[in-house]
Specification:
- By secondary structure, the protein is of the alpha/beta class.
- The chain has three domains: 225 residues, Rossmann fold, CATH 3.40.50; 87 residues, Tyrosyl-Transfer RNA Synthetase (Orthogonal Bundle); 70 residues, RNA-binding S4 domain (Structural Genomics Hypothetical 15.5 Kd Protein In mrcA-pckA Intergenic Region, Chain A), CATH 3.10.290.
- 47% of the residues lie in helices and 15% in strands.
- It contains 17 helices and 13 strands.
- It has a six-stranded mixed beta sheet with strand order 1-6-5-2-3-4, sandwiched between helices.
- β12 and β13 form a beta hairpin.
- α6 crosses α9, α11 runs antiparallel to α14 and α16 packs across α17.
- The longest helix has 17 residues.
- About 1% of the residues have low confidence.
- Catalyzes the attachment of tyrosine to tRNA(Tyr) in a two-step reaction: tyrosine is first activated by ATP to form Tyr-AMP and then transferred to the acceptor end of tRNA(Tyr).
- Its EC number is 6.1.1.1.
- It catalyses: tRNA(Tyr) + L-tyrosine + ATP = L-tyrosyl-tRNA(Tyr) + AMP + diphosphate + H(+).
- Pfam families: S4 (PF01479), tRNA-synt_1b (PF00579).
- One of its GO terms (biological process) is tyrosyl-tRNA aminoacylation.
């Protein structure tokens, strides 16, 4: 029996299973098992950190993937730290970018931060969440402290970062201040004495810097847990407003419900894994029922209601279901809904309707939009100039015409 296996009591094993649910990578798992076991023995909760830069005022379901993981760990009794990167936002995170991202002004950051935690509190338990701003320790560093911090990490290590290497080889400028971003994010872990840091897969390098800096400062290094980037409603690209495949957490209950019902039966399980608060055992039971013949639509309704209730209320979720059922004839999407592949995105909505055969002419397409008779993923379309990007959409014209339309890139 290995030292790690000897620490895997049933309780620790259960905790580990919850932590790893849906994750992309857990580093270093053996170290994390030791932390979990120690926490169980001593009763001292782990300090779990998630840092988010308030670069935009709104959050969509893709952003909540890491927040959901925080909530799961919070429910195990650990201390979760919601870190608002008001200082690092003024530097600008270059992760995954080929060009320097312009830093935000203090005014922009302050405005965005006002709504960030309010939205995050729809997922996290506010009474058990430690809210911090990294300007608390970053501002007092000063020039001398920043230089001393920079001396603890080499340029060679910094250039191991994929996007820096790619830009350097391609002759694309890298500003010196961009090297400071991973350093300052890593220093957050030192200041907070983090045991575990969460982030998206695009944050792996920055999270590893935190481990190394903690060693430099004589601390036990944090483990890191990366979460995958959630696919949007098209099931192809990551959820993004620019891709028109997102579900915003501040959308109306009806819009949110309709979009969730439009996802494919396969993608539904991905959403269950990353977005639902149901246990893995419950989800496995739902999958078993579907395999045994239960209509996947019924299972999708459960998911849509859970998500809508989380961000609105149970009553709103019930009302959204009632409206959805009224709209789609007792809640059943046509079994023979045609699957249509047309054109190359982006494509105007009027042309989409014509090429899909949902209308006979451009004039009819325009008239239906003007009269509010066209819906895309449950949302009524009012803009005749709307263009649909790459992805798959459930398009409805009137009460009886439906098509699942895919636009290629």
């Amino acid at each position: 029996m290995s030292p790690t296996e000897s620490l895997l009591s049933p309780e620790v094993e259960a905790d580990l299973r919850i932590a790893k649910r849906g994750c992309d990578e857990l580093l270093v798992e053996a170290e994390f098992v030791k932390k979990l076991a120690r926490s169980r023995v001593t009763g001292t909760p782990l300090r779990i950190k998630l840092g988010l830069d308030p670069t935009a005022p709104d959050i969509h379901l893709g952003h909540t993937v890491v927040l959901n993981k925080m909530r799961q760990l919070q429910d195990l009794g650990h201390t979760v730290i919601f870190l608002i990167g008001d200082f690092t936002s003024m530097i600008g995170d270059p992760s995954g970018r080929n060009v320097t991202r312009p830093p935000l002004t203090a005014e922009q950051i302050q405005e965005n931060a006002k709504t960030y935690y309010a939205q995050a509190s729809l997922v996290l338990d506010p009474s058990k969440t430690e809210v911090r701003y990294n300007s608390e320790w970053s501002d007092p560093l000063g020039a001398r402290g920043l230089i001393q911090l920079a001396s603890r990490y080499t340029v060679a290590r910094m250039m191991e970062r994929e996007d820096f290497t790619r830009r350097f080889k391609g002759g694309i400028p890298i500003s010196v201040h961009e090297f400071l971003y991973p350093l300052m994010q890593g220093y957050d872990s030192v200041a907070l004495k983090a045991d575990l840091e969460l982030g998206g897969t695009d944050q792996k390098f920055n999270l590893l810097v935190g481990r190394e800096l903690q060693k430099e400062y004589g601390q036990e290094p944090q483990c890191i847990l990366t979460m995958p980037l959630l696919e949007g409603t098209d099931g192809v690209d990551k959820m993004s407003k620019s891709k028109h495949n997102y579900i915003g957490i501040s959308e109306t209950p009806e819009s949110m419900f309709g979009k969730l019902m439009s996802i494919s039966d396969t993608l539904m399980w991905r959403y269950y894994e990353l977005l639902s608060f149901r246990s893995l055992d419950e989800i496995e039971l739902l999958q078993h029922h579907v395999k045994e013949g239960r209509n996947p639509r019924d299972t999708k309704v459960l998911l849509a209601q859970e998500i809508v209730a989380r961000f609105h209320s149970q009553r709103a979720a019930n009302d959204a279901l009632a409206q959805f059922e009224a709209r789609f004839r007792d809640g059943i999407l046509p079994e023979d809904m045609p699957e249509i592949h047309i054109g190359v995105a982006p494509l105007g909505i009027l042309k989409v309707l014509r090429e899909a055969g949902l209308v006979a002419s451009g004039a009819e397409a325009q008239r239906n939009v003007e009269q509010g008779g066209v819906r895309v993923n449950g949302d009524r379309i009012e803009d005749k100039s709307l263009e649909l990007g790459v992805g798959t959409y459930v398009v409805q014209v009137g009460k009886r015409k439906f098509a699942r339309i895919t636009l290629n890139g």
